[in-house]
Amino acid sequence: NLWGYGSYFARDASYSVNAHYCDRCLDELGNKMLLLCLVECGLSCVGEEHMRIMPKIHPERKQLQYMSYVDYASNPEIFVTMGEQA
């Protein structure tokens, strides 16, 4: 949970392949398999290891929360979502 609690998705398929996350996901011919997902990210904030609840966008508007965590705000490569966003 480097960027917070939730389900992790990479922007680029090469991230999962090169980081060896899919080494055991092989088809009958030994080819690596990846799952292509459409993920609703909404407004994102930079996550931290301890984060388990999405922070509020504005303290006075309690119902408005961020929808996902990212690794970097300016050029995110990792997206972390919760619930049924994927």
Characterise the protein shown here:
The longest helix is centred in the first third of the chain and has 6 residues, at 13-18. It contains 1 helix and 6 strands; from the N terminus they run βαβββββ. The model has no long low-confidence stretch (mean pLDDT 87). Strands 1-6-5-2 form a 4-stranded mixed sheet. The protein has a two-stranded antiparallel ribbon with strand order 3-4. It is elongated, with a radius of gyration of 15 Å. Helix content is 7%, strand content 26%.
Biggest sheet architecture:
4 strands, mixed
Average pLDDT for all residues: 87
Structural class: mainly beta
Task: Work out the number of β strands.
Answer: 6
Which stretches are poorly predicted, pLDDT < 50 over at least 5 residues? none
User: Compute the gyration radius: what is it?
Assistant: 15 Å
Strand order of the largest sheet: 1-6-5-2
Contiguous helical run count: 1
- In percent terms, what proportion of residues is strand? 25-35%
Helix and strand succession? EHEEEEE
| Helix share bin | under 10%
Q: What spatial form do the alpha-carbon principal axes imply?
A: elongated
* End-to-end distance: 18 Å
